[in-house]
């Protein structure tokens, strides 16, 4: 390996970890400690790092921060509201626990904006990146090349990209949404419902919910039907009411008196429309929502599947920080972690007034 190549790798490692040790660099680069010391001396002379006993640290204000115990990591998410509010809070809490700093970028579910946010955060010299990309697992190939171009450790959140869509394997932490769908449908079947209608919004989560629904149809022996019309991701779409009315008509035609609706906002509006049509909830129609962000505030408090959003942010951030703290040359096995959601039972599917219980398979 030529000296310029080693220098580039040394500077990249310094950006990731804030501090370098000669022995670890020698093992990582596959060269002698003497060679590493010579490289560090050349980079010090060029003002690109500062040699210290046993290794090197950064220079200037950014380097001074990195040279201490604090690490800076990037966090890029599609939104800072709704689902991702708790994810961000969880990551922030874990960063504080480790004495690290988070830099947040929000893409607005726009792939081009997302790349701009990633590039901006990487230009700040962050040591690693937490990423919930705007694209879902069914569009992994579109994200693979961008991921493989990032030169700091990446932990994916709520995504599970892997071979052959990406060249490298990445740590990821995600909610097992297929399990969440099974959890909701199992509960409805336990209440005696055999015909169940399902309506999903046009979101990344729907990909995994459909997998859980397919498994539930076989495992539970229930008659499930998924509405062919995907609800809009946000309930303010003017077509939402017409679509909810059509879904209620589908349920009546199918003989279904229980439904699973993604998300809370749509489920709450469905309850209102059902009541306007003379249906009683839960007597005539049992409803389970998915997400549990505002489900408890519905006209009839909604039973809801609650993904572990706070814990997801905490777990992903801790996974990244532990990897960064370990330093170069000490890479542990890549981890693919799935967190289980829980079911919070309220009045919309038959719980006693004021009762809230938690159910798990």
From TrEMBL:
Q: Which SMART domains match?
A: HTH_DEOR (SM00420)
Q: What is this protein called?
A: DNA-binding LacI/PurR family transcriptional regulator
- InterPro entries recorded: DeoR_HTH, LacI/GalR-like_sensor, Peripla_BP_I, Tscrpt_reg_HTH_DeoR_CS, WH-like_DNA-bd_sf, WH_DNA-bd_sf
GO molecular function list: DNA-binding transcription factor activity; transcription cis-regulatory region binding
- Coiled-coil parts of chain: none
Q: Which domain of life is it from?
A: Bacteria
Query: Where does the HTH deoR-type domain start and stop, copy by copy?
Result: 3-58
Q: What is the lineage of its organism?
A: Bacteria, Bacillati, Actinomycetota, Actinomycetes, Propionibacteriales
Check the record and name the CDD domains matching this protein: PBP1_LacI_sugar_binding-like
UniProt keywords (A-Z) are: DNA-binding, Transcription, Transcription regulation
